[in-house]
Design goal:
The protein is α+β, with helices and mostly antiparallel strands. About 45% of the residues lie in helices and about 25% in strands.
């Protein structure tokens, strides 16, 4: 269970590293599909509850496929669309960070910013007394 200081620090990491970089929508969620944090740029409309449930199922299916081909996991997924793309990244055994972005931002920038945000989130998860 995360405390309010941890939740605030996670929100700050998402806002600072992802939303400020131009990512449209970010969901930090449990693998079960429960949303821990969600942020957007104010221009998107998304049923984040339904999306998180579907994202959890998608990640679980890909995890099962990884095991079938002899991998312990695929910790990163990417779906490219005509207008929007979705980047899934495993943060911990229990959590997933999903970032949705449009064609105006490159995948390289997204991967870089997600890596920085995940590093910060992992530090927050490790320290329940984070200010």
């Amino acid at each position: 269970m995360l405390n309010q200081n941890q939740l605030d620090a996670i929100d700050h990491a998402i806002e600072t590293h992802l939303i400020a970089a131009g990512i449209d929508h970010v969901i930090y969620m449990e693998m079960s599909g429960n949303t821990i944090a969600k942020h957007d740029n104010g221009k998107t409309r998304l049923d984040s509850t339904a999306f998180a449930a579907l994202a959890a199922g998608n990640f679980a299916a890909v995890d099962a496929m990884a095991k079938l081909v002899g991998e312990s996991e695929f910790s990163l997924l990417f779906h490219k669309g005509e207008k929007l793309s979705i980047h899934f990244s495993k943060v911990s055994n229990d959590t997933l960070l999903v970032s949705m972005f449009n064609k105006d931002i490159s995948l390289g920038i997204v991967r870089l910013k997600v890596a920085v945000a995940i590093k910060e989130i992992i530090q927050v998860l490790a320290d329940p007394d984070i200010p």
